[in-house]
Amino acid sequence: MAVKLGMAGALRNAAGSGYVLYLLPSLVQGGVGLLLVPVTTHFLDPADFGVFALLIAVAMPVRAFAATGARWVIGGNYFNATEIERRTMLFNVLAFELALRGLLILLLFVAAEPVLHWLVSDYRPEYVRYLNLVLAASLASSLWPAISFLMTVKNSPRLFAIFSLVQTFAGALTTVICLVVLGWGVESLFLAMVVAACVSVVLELLYVRRLVNFSLERKWLKEVVNTGLRATPGGLAEVASNMVDKIAIQRWAGLGTLGLYSHSQQYQSIFKMLTAALSNTLTTDSLKIYSRELDPAPLERMLSAWYGMLAVVGIGVALFSDDLIALLTHGKFVGSAPLVLIWYLMVFSVSNGIPYANFLMARKRNRVLMYTQLIPTLAGIGLVGVGAYVYGVFGAAWAILLTSVAIQVSRRLMAHRLGYKGIAERRFAEALLVYGTLWFLDDLLVWGMGTEIGVSLLLIPAVVVRFDLMQEMRRVLLRQEPGRAAE
């Protein structure tokens, strides 16, 4: 009976835990994305995906220039501010970012045609209309970065999950209606972005209206400028890097090849969602622990469990990604599969860097965060361009991965210099070794489907046992709030 009650309690904790609730939107978004792949690839060709990716890249500088570093401002001040100060701070962050993004969107809207003529080798008049839809979606999503981060800091995973799921289903439903029912083309993808952003912003305004004081204060505007805008150079450099690969590929390899590259990034976006769920889960605990110098054991358990899951999923990615993509895309986008293997390495890189970034944020080392983002990314821009020119899509992908690794390594070095003590580093190395070794062997030996299934059936249980994954997950789901035991 006690066992049954214990299991029931674990399940209740699991269903309501921040980890599961932050992870749920990522899992649903990933699942919905995979379900949409057969639909979108049936109605659209690689060149259509190339157009979609290219025009989103053209609008990326708006987001970078308008980034006020909401995470840095809120994360560095929230736990040391009174409730009134928090409300005023939040309003100033939101107002500044909305005003700045709106101004930049207006400028790009006016200059859309000459900009596209200059950047796009195969320019068409309808591209201006598509870009305007991207700009509308960008304006409607102006508040989401700050509000979603606020939800994680306030430890509101249920609201975060609801808002994220509404965005996902609104975009997916719009895509299906436009493609299947109305018979439209690539514009369906752009309209889905607009609808998802507009539905979300209504919910965001309803949520935030009671959390702000409608007062502009010099103190917080100065904090946004002095602290938050330090995020802009690094963010701009990152966006420039993401633009360079797409513009270079469409110029030197064509929109069709860019479409294959862009399609591979759909799977990368799923990986990013999963990593974002980890980051959101760790944020509140990390800021409390590193701000108050508490025991980091809860973070270590979470990271250990995460690396174990990365190893398990990595087995499937290394062995079956090509078969899955061929099945989902009717064989039209199978050329994307090798790129997906590279993008999965990004999950390892970004995941390993999350605790370093949170440590630096909690210690208000925003200048360190800025330079460790800016300098590697600026170097990476040139590397991406050279890689794309010499080695095509694979050169661009490896250059982006190396840039990410450089960012995380530099933050790791700086965090250790400031007193950070590494956690779960051995688990990270073991998970990376599992994935890398399996990828190398499968590529070298060219295993058939039967062999791949056999290898996975042997390896997955071994990894679960090695990482003590079931026990680690149970500890994570039943974990205490940081510092509670001490209190």
What do these coordinates show?
By secondary structure, the chain is mainly alpha-helical. 83% of the residues lie in helices and 0% in strands. The chain is built from 20 helices and no strands. The chain has helices at residues 2-16, 18-43, 46-65, 70-77, 83-110, 112-119, 126-140, 144-153, 157-181, 187-208, 218-226, 231-252, 255-292, 297-328, 337-362, 366-391, 393-417, 425-445, 449-466, 469-477.
The topology string of helices and strands comes to HHHHHHHHHHHHHHHHHHHH
N-to-C span: 32 Å
Q: How many individual β-strands?
A: 0
Low-confidence stretches: 1-16, 480-487
Radius of gyration: 22 Å
Number of helices: 20
Q: Helical content, roughly?
A: over 70%
Main beta sheet, described? none
Relative strand content: under 5%
Mean pLDDT across all amino acids: 83
Shape: globular
- Structural class estimated from helices and strands: mainly alpha
